């Protein structure tokens, strides 16, 4: 199959032929239709040796596979649209991952949008959950224009918080109001007087 692989030359990748992934017990083989690019992967590419294969987030459909593997995957039968996260190597035509790392794509969501969810979406969700119940709280999201930040804005609003978004430049704030921000602040120097300890809040 075809996959993108590091050349070992300052973050560059090339399209190469690689062996088909082996599917272990409890894993699912996915025909990859979309991937997303994360900052961590790009940083890793700058020092990667030739042959290293990047790729965390992906979306696609469960591939035809041996019946034993299909049974181990439970409801994830061939043809099911899924998205998930791999330890690497998902910038390829196919990837094998544990079934627990996959989720079914809801109707109405494209594979392209689904592929953006795992790393950035889960990072935002886990961070907000550390704060406990956010209903009625005021939440400050720094780096709100980035992938994690935009998910954090939307999730905080869904949790019924009032969101202030911080961006580095005015143009970076475009579209954030539509995602639910009550206010967009340019530069961290503009938020110093707005930060207050939350009564009963947890620090970690």
UniProtKB/TrEMBL annotation:
Record-level Gene Ontology MF annotations: NADPH binding; oxidoreductase activity, acting on NAD(P)H
Organism encoding this protein: Actinomadura luteofluorescens
A Pfam family recorded for this sequence: ADH_N
Protein name, UniProt field: NADPH:quinone reductase-like Zn-dependent oxidoreductase
InterPro entries (alphabetical): ADH-like_N, ER, GroES-like_sf, NAD(P)-bd_dom_sf
Domain (Enoyl reductase (ER)) ranges: 8-203
Keywords: NADP, Oxidoreductase
Domain of life: Bacteria
């Amino acid at each position: 199959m075809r996959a993108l692989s590091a050349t070992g030359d300052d973050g560059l990748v090339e399209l190469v032929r690689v062996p088909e992934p082996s599917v272990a017990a409890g894993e699912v083989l996915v025909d990859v239709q979309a991937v997303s690019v994360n900052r961590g992967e790009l940083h890793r590419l700058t020092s990667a040796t030739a042959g290293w294969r990047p790729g965390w987030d992906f979306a696609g459909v469960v591939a035809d596979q041996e019946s034993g593997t299909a049974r181990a995957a439970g409801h994830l039968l061939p043809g099911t649209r899924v998205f998930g996260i791999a330890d690497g190597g998902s910038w390829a035509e196919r990837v094998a991952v544990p079934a627990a790392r996959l989720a079914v794509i809801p109707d109405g969501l494209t594979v392209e949008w689904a592929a953006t969810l795992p790393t950035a979406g889960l990072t935002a969700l886990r961070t907000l959950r550390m704060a406990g119940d956010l209903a009625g709280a005021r939440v400050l999201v720094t780096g709100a224009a980035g992938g994690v930040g935009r998910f954090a804005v939307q999730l905080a609003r869904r949790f019924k918080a009032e969101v202030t978004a911080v961006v580095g430049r005015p143009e970076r704030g475009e579209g954030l109001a539509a995602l639910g921000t009550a206010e967009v602040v340019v530069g961290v120097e503009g938020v110093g007087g707005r930060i207050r300890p939350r009564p009963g809040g947890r620090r970690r």
